[in-house]
Amino acid sequence: MTTSVKEAGETFRKLHEGPRLLLLANAWDAGSARLVESLGGRAVATSSAAVAWAHGYPDGDVLPVKILVATVAEIARVIRIPLSVDVEGGYSTDPAVAAEAVAAVIDAGGVGINIEDGDGSPDLLCAKIERIRSVAARKGVELFINARTDVYLFELEPEERRLAATLARAARYRGAGADGIFVPGVIDAKEIAELAKGVGLPLNVLTRPGLPDGATLLRLGVRRLSAGSGIAQRLWLEATALAREFLETGRSDPLFAAGMPYGDINGLMKN
User: Fold this and answer.
1) In the prediction, which pLDDT does 4 show?
2) Distance of CA 249 to the CA centre of its chain
3) Which one, 108, 121, 230, 235, has the greatest CB density within 10 A?
């Protein structure tokens, strides 16, 4: 990253203030991040699932932190726009250990993080946020902490109680020092509007079938929309089909029927 961490952090924070919706086409390595930047992405965010899969690990707090940090450093090397990193649950139930992982992410070039509660307690995520905020302050970095709550995604509460439960968690995470609230799984326009009004911080939602489009989300009060693992999942499906056919038939033509030219891809990496 050629801009300073301080400048990148300030830029990333301002991207949540409008007037445009912050669209994040989540990347998983330096090449995909470079592609996102070349297409006009105003920031790059990683997908924890896509990063894990790219290194042969399942999603779910099992990716070795050293691999995550190396990936962050490689992405930061090739982009000029802010980088936010999905650190899952911090890769530990110990807030101090989670903060150490985030400290390494900051050192590698991250100016924002997503950190999630999953099926853990709100108390635990609050403790992690507080420790992470303290570590970032000591480093002189105004880290954007996007607190993800999985009440909707994992259906942790009955449907009629999810909105209230999410708002209650959001209030706690805001009090602990979060800068944004990420609510994956919600798709209902009315509930999204109530969340945007009630969380008291920039609201981030995740692409899902049935989710309103970007223009509608912006009108509802959403500030940030993440592709999550969606782009990677689509590419895995395409790669599966191509590899399967090649292994079965040995035919060359399908591999070149539709694809980005070699020279274009190679040129993209010469930044």
Assistant:
1) 82
2) 38
3) 108
d(CA 3, CA 59): 31
- Chain center to CA of 138: 24
- Supply the pTM of this predicted model: 0.96
Per the CB < 8 A criterion, the answer to whether 141 and 111 are in contact is yes
Domain count, the chain: 1
In a domain, 268, yes or no: no
Asked if residue 248 is part of any domain, the answer here is: no
204: domain CATH number is: 3.20.20.60
Q: What is the DSSP string of 192-229?
A: HHHHHHHSSS-EEEE--TT---HHHHHHHT--EEE-TT
Q: What is the pLDDT of residues 75-120, one digit of tens each?
A: 999 999 999 999 999 999 999 999 999 999 999 999 999 999 999 9
Q: Tell me how far apart the alpha carbons of residues 37 and 167 are, in angstroms, rounded to a whole number.
A: 33
Domain that includes residue 35, residue range: 5-234
- Is the omega angle on the peptide bond into residue 19 within 30 degrees of 0, that is, cis? yes
Q: Cα separation of 164 and 151, whole Å?
A: 10
Residue type, 242: L
Q: Is residue 245 part of a domain?
A: no
